[in-house]
Design brief:
- The termini are far apart.
- The chain has 2 domains: 38 residues; 217 residues, no CATH class.
- Helix 6 packs across helix 8.
- The chain is mainly α.
- The protein is 85% helix and 0% strand.
Amino acid sequence: MGAFQRFLAGIGAGVIELCRGTGALVLFALDAVSHVVRPPFYPRELARQIMRIGWFSLPVVGLTTLFTGGALALQIFAGGARFNAESVVPSIVAIGMVRELGPVLGGLMVAGRVSASIAAEIGTMRVTEQIDALSTLSTNPMKYLIVPRIVAATLTLPILVLVGDIIGIMGGYFVGIGRLGFNGATYLQTTADFLTGWDVISGLLKAAVFGFLLSLMGCFHGYNSGRGAQGVGRATTSAVVSASVLIFAANYLLTELFFTS
């Protein structure tokens, strides 16, 4: 086989592997979604995952959006000063946070924390044969391990993003009145005037999709983890990378859907 044939064979093998992985992911997602509405249910496990994914992720999301809102206010003020448009700072900070930066940054921060944790936990259970033990005990691993994590992330990420939006807007507010000379009441009034309900709702819908994706990738890679510590490590890395890429891709598609006539 010549060098060119080997090159084409490598491309073909990569495409086949990509199709195989995509098909496996789609079937895994459909299986997980189908189990959401079918008993038995595990409310205690769901509540535990809500605490782990939602409550314990609040500090990192809050700090990220706080500093992002402040930096965004500084950047918009510096750019607007070139066109004598410094007054747009409150409205652009609010719209940018609730439409884009809040959901995307919240999703990425939670993906880095939660997707890795889920993949490592489930991957370790796969390596140590705990998942097989659940099946032996007549407990469906999909119902007990996968569904609570996916449902918890899908429900809690919009709440995290909503809190993050508020904190991010307040970060811009503090910078605006403390560093840029804005009047506090005028800043808040401008924010309220330009921010619409659809801006907030669209960001929360994005957050729900991102929560589903990041939890799905953590569960999928952990559930299909290779053997040994090296396999778990690869699953953890793959979960974070794939969740981050899917969040960016889904963000573009949803923005195209929500804001393009």
